[in-house]
Input
Amino acid sequence: MYIFGGNLITVALLIFLSYFVWDQQLKPLWLHNQAKKQFASQLSQATNSTPTPQPAQTATPTNTPTPQPTPVEPVIVATEIPKGSFLLEIPNIQLSWMVHHINPTEIDETDPWGIKKSLLDEYGVVDYPYLQYPGEKGMVSIAGHANISGNPFWYLSWLGVNDKITITTQDGTITNYTVYQKVIVDPDDPIFWETKYTHELRLVSC
Output
């Protein structure tokens, strides 16, 4: 009975460890690879859809008087940034990872930051839905696990001042950042939400 029971415990432990490795490491990596393939396709479409400039045509002189155009007030239309998962690259720690963009239907209304733990566990890295999207004025913030070897932000503590960070969105827009500070703060610290810069990126791990 002891051996039988021991075997049961061993099997149960192996099942638990297999699930843990899949849920915490392999599943986020698989989702990352799928998202990166889709991102590459969308980026290629955005690049190919860019209009090719045509050579200017030389007007042929004629005797017909050219009518003068009536002045029209310019109409400024704000272009909304297409929002979706985006690519985060940090060369110094050899990180290239797709950040899952939390859309309005995925927001956790009970969480002060709007992030469901299940989403963070599933994708490994997500953005903060209540803050700005890359390219928008204000603060962009990204959260990722760093408590287990193999997590995307495992080596985040290796970042140093003046290290470079790049974000590429689905429309091909590239935003470059330079690290200027590393701090350890409490989640309720006001500094977490405040910024004095027009564009700022914050990477958060725990």
About this structure: The first helix runs from residue 2 to 48. Residues 1-23, 56-62, 71-79 have pLDDT under 50 and may be disordered. Residues 157 and 183 are 10 Å apart (CA to CA). The chain has two helices and seven strands.
